Please model this.
Amino acid sequence: MVPEAEFGSYYGRPVIKEPTWKPLDIAGYFFLGGLAGAGSVLAAGAELTGRRGMARGMKISSALAVSASAAALVHDLGRPERFVNMLRVFRPTSPMSMGSWLLSAYGPAAGAAAVLDVSGRLPSLGRAATAGAALLGPAVAAYTAVLAADTAVPAWHGAHRELPYVFAGSATAAAAGMALAAAPVAENAPAVSAALLGAAAETTAVAVMEHRLGMVAETYRTGAAGRLTRAAQVLSALGAAGALLGRRSRPAAVAAGAALLGASACTRFAVFHAGVASARDPKYTVVPQRERLARRRQEQAGTPDTADTARPADQATAAGRAEQAGEAGEAGES
Model:
């Protein structure tokens, strides 16, 4: 019996191109976009419930975060006109095109909401800008996950089902952390709830993602990504616990907020480094493909449709042949 061949690439070289993005630019872009988008939702909720301090703090935070996020993206692109060129196309099937348009619509809304709130001018327009930023915020917080998962990078593409939930949970935790640090203690009850929800969602989504990734999950547990993932888990737990104490203590609220912000940043950088590591090693590209192919063949071999659909056709063919033979026999007798 011929033994099964072991995988090996040409001189051990990668079979896909490693991302050339800079970690500070792209992972920072992921983190700041999530902070801005989820922060706008918290700002709108705080304004509706009369929490003026939290609303203003989150509006300013979101405006600054989306500005820094756009600056990081433009820095990675090299020239500002490259971002403008991406707006020449509107393609609903392209996460890159949709993300560019989304960022272009959200940024002015978040900026107007902050400026009009601080200046006290045009309150109706300010409320409209706040509502617009809150509506676009969830998409801004999570679309970068779709953008990453739409690549051939194994640690991102293989996690396409869970990565949006990881980013959404991480963004919620970051925004809650900012709210805890910026808002008065008397107003931070919604931030505490958001902190617990975000930390739980992020931790759960990461665990599910690693379970489903199989061997590719090694990239999230080893090297720089592994250290960042463990740091995120510790900071997330500390932040959630501190948020409960922060309902009465300003120092505890600030410390919890800092921990949650750190946890979210570590998660985004861990995802980035895991993706780079998975593209660098060819086994993470080829072995999962072979496993999926083997499962597909097993499923096709085990499904009854092949036999069931072939049998009527065979029966019809046999019946036709018998009928033709009978006709030929009758013709010979006559």
Summary: The chain has 13 helices and no strands.
